[in-house]
Input
Amino acid sequence: MIRLSIPVRQALARLTLPVLIAAAFGLMLLGKADTVMAERAHMVLADTLAPIYGLLAEPLARLRDAADSIGLVLAQAGENVRLQKENEQLRKWQAIALALDAENTTLKANLHWIPDPQPSFVTARVVADASGVYARAVLLSAGPNHGIIKGQIALDDRGLVGRVTEVGARSVRVLLLTDLNSRIPVILEGSHSRAILTGTNGTRPRLAYWTEDVQPIEGERVVTSAEANAFPAGLPVGTVHYNSQHVPEVEPAARLDQLEIVRLFDYGIRSVLPPEASIARPAADRRR
Amino acid sequence: MHERTPGIRPRPTLRRQLDVTARRMFPGATTALLLLLLAAPLGLPGQAELQCALVLGCVFFWSLFRPASLPPLLVFGLGMLADLLSFGPLGISVLVLLIVHGLAMLWRYDLTRQSFLMVWLVFAVIATGAAALQWALISLLTFQMLPAMPVFFQAALSAGLYPLLAVVLAQAHATVAEPARA
Output
């Protein structure tokens, strides 16, 4: 340690804060100029923390389940009646679905329909909420050599969740469809009108740019559109809901507030991808 | 410097030195731990805002009452950790926390003599400024006007949680974080 005189040491101490504030500005510029480096820094930390949070996730989920089950026990009787009614309704729908499926199969057979290729998928556990104050995202834990690439589509058991935006060695970040930067081409199923689903950071993303002559109908199903070749057609997104300001929003089908397990589908769509993703692909192949 | 003043002191054994070091590291270590803990999948509503609010409160409190244990470089590190954990643009939490630290250091001779209510009031103003600055910087760096609602929510949460945080930290300040009690 170099011995410094007291005035010099005091002057140095007084300089530290301005220098560090300048460094913070430098960091901001650097993070903006070199996004690849910033992303790598984020993913290195995420990779380190994902296994730890993965271990934590299970007991935490069990704790939450226990708390939920207490509430469930209290509401059992009413819930049973509701479920029986819903079951009846669902049985009716099942009959209709089976009939339609059979009809569809025969029609497709008559038409020599070329079936869509079955997409491959991997399943991953959500280990952390990677949202900030101004972003909505989740962090998934993935094993080494997971083969997940940017732009893959995340679904839970009910519907669309979002898209993979950052890939690390052991973790993957998925931008939710509610994020402010999320734009998803969709089709309103009733009118077959196209629209764009724009995230607002709120719980319900908004519909925009629908065809002028049709108005979204409350409760109408919304599915993805193959427009722009970013998504395959027909993935369930949610249902239309008008808010108090009479703006059409979409209630997501996926349970975005309690995601636990997410499937990442590879539909082989490579049209809207950042440049480095195309380089990552052959490297991943070579490793195998 | 404490070591240079004359007086009777216990012998600086290894155990004692470790104890003093641990106490000096308490503010930084607990704040970092709080950051990591609040990034865990706890499923709390508004967890991201809660993280910002608590870290801001911690940095303000320790900068005011024990700046020797929270040097600017440590504040820089905490800001960096917060930025990396939140996947936001780098450097924003760093700048916000450093400015809060700087203001607390600047005003500490007057503020530490004031009542708690006064300190709280000043913190509420600082928290509002910090939330607004964070909003402005993220808007600037992502080239879009972000919704302004989170600013008010975050400021209110920071100010509202500060008394609770201060009670806990004041306890720690007098006991586990006090190097003189080693």
In short: Residues 12-181 of chain B form one domain.
